[in-house]
UniProtKB/TrEMBL annotation:
<dbReference type="InterPro" id="IPR000847">
    <property type="entry name" value="LysR_HTH_N"/>
</dbReference>
<dbReference type="InterPro" id="IPR005119">
    <property type="entry name" value="LysR_subst-bd"/>
</dbReference>
<dbReference type="GO" id="GO:0003700">
    <property type="term" value="F:DNA-binding transcription factor activity"/>
</dbReference>
<keyword id="KW-0805">Transcription regulation</keyword>
<comment type="similarity">
    <text>Belongs to the LysR transcriptional regulatory family.</text>
</comment>
<keyword id="KW-0804">Transcription</keyword>
<keyword id="KW-0238">DNA-binding</keyword>
<dbReference type="GO" id="GO:0003677">
    <property type="term" value="F:DNA binding"/>
</dbReference>
<dbReference type="InterPro" id="IPR036388">
    <property type="entry name" value="WH-like_DNA-bd_sf"/>
</dbReference>
<protein>
    <submittedName>
        <fullName>LysR family transcriptional regulator</fullName>
    </submittedName>
</protein>
<dbReference type="GO" id="GO:0032993">
    <property type="term" value="C:protein-DNA complex"/>
</dbReference>
<dbReference type="Pfam" id="PF00126">
    <property type="entry name" value="HTH_1"/>
</dbReference>
<feature type="domain" description="HTH lysR-type">
    <location>
        <begin position="1"/>
        <end position="58"/>
    </location>
</feature>
<dbReference type="InterPro" id="IPR036390">
    <property type="entry name" value="WH_DNA-bd_sf"/>
</dbReference>
<dbReference type="Pfam" id="PF03466">
    <property type="entry name" value="LysR_substrate"/>
</dbReference>
């Protein structure tokens, strides 16, 4: 089993198309196909189910994929460690983040990192499934580090460094009947339409759990993928929301109100796999994060 075979295998597994995999690996399609067949002969089992219209991973292929990624990552780390001794840190760094995040100055983080380590290519990503999707990306080794919202900083297989903890509270339009209140109960909100993030985001998980534990149901009328846009939707009168303090609230006609009892807090953290040890590029990025945290109390 050779490195190039694993590279071809991972490319086909992720693209599910031999032509695109060949283009991605800068090889001709016949070379990719023959390499995959040789790998299947070596392993004694098909890795792909092929038809004239589609390519799918077999059970054996699905089992091999994370191990192949892990092997290629290890080879890249070994090569980067040697190359780094000669010419500083090189390679690539895949960073997952949350849309609308202002508690960390991402632009400054990227600028500072690039100034120190110009030989590292950065790939910044968000995930439609929120923190759940980012954590899955870490486990699948398609991300090296991720900024996530979590209910607990103890997650098996992952190392998380807390950055800030946020306390969600209710925001309503300025003219809402509850706008003059200092506190409201969850029962008083049971008939209100809510604006929230999709399932998979920590803020949504926390709020759903709060209402479920109170034996209450709520209606999420609108789902948005960027939490910082929620105040503008609330201002328009579409619904109410439970969110952490947001910098965008200042420009919107919304009123914050505390919940009684308070909503469950959640933590913004930077996450990575607990093993193996972080690469030099990951360690260099982690060393810069504390200097770019914006401690203004807002997400």
């Amino acid at each position: 089993m050779e490195q190039r075979q694993l590279e071809f295998f991972v490319a086909v597994a992720e693209e599910l198309n031999f032509t695109r995999a060949a283009r991605r690996t800068h090889a001709v399609q016949s070379t990719v196909s023959s390499s995959i067949r040789a790998l299947e002969r070596d392993l004694g089992t098909p890795l792909f189910a092929r038809s004239t219209t589609r390519v799918e991973l077999t059970e054996a292929g699905r089992a091999l994929l994370p191990e192949a990624r892990r092997s290629l990552d290890s080879l890249d780390q070994a090569r980067a460690a040697v190359d780094g001794l000669r010419a500083g840190i090189t390679g690539s760094l895949r960073i997952g983040t949350l849309s609308g995040l202002t508690a960390v100055d991402m632009r400054r983080l990227v600028r500072d990192f690039r100034q120190r380590h110009p030989g590292v290519q950065l790939n910044m990503r968000v995930d439609a499934a929120g923190s759940d999707g980012l954590l899955a990306g870490l486990r699948a080794r398609t991300l090296d580090v991720a900024f996530v919202g979590v209910q607990s900083t103890t997650i098996p297989g992952l190392h998380l460094d807390p950055i800030a903890t946020f306390q969600p509270r209710l925001i309503v339009p300025a003219g809402h009947p509850l706008a003059g209140r200092s506190r409201v109960t969850r029962a008083e909100l049971a008939d209100e339409p809510f604006i929230d993030l999709p399932v998979g985001f920590c803020n949504r998980a926390r709020t759903d759990a709060d209402f479920r534990d109170a034996d209450l149901t709520r209606t999420v009328a609108v789902e948005v993928s960027d939490v910082t846009t929620i105040p503008s939707y609330v201002e328009s009168g579409i619904g109410v929301a439970l969110v952490p303090p947001l910098a965008t609230e200042a420009a919107a006609g919304v009123v914050p109100i505390e919940l009684d009892p308070p909503a469950r807090p959640w933590t913004l953290a930077v996450a990575r796999l607990s093993t193996p040890e972080p690469t030099r590029a990951v360690s260099a990025l982690l060393a810069l994060i504390d200097g770019v945290v914006v401690r203004h109390g807002c997400y």
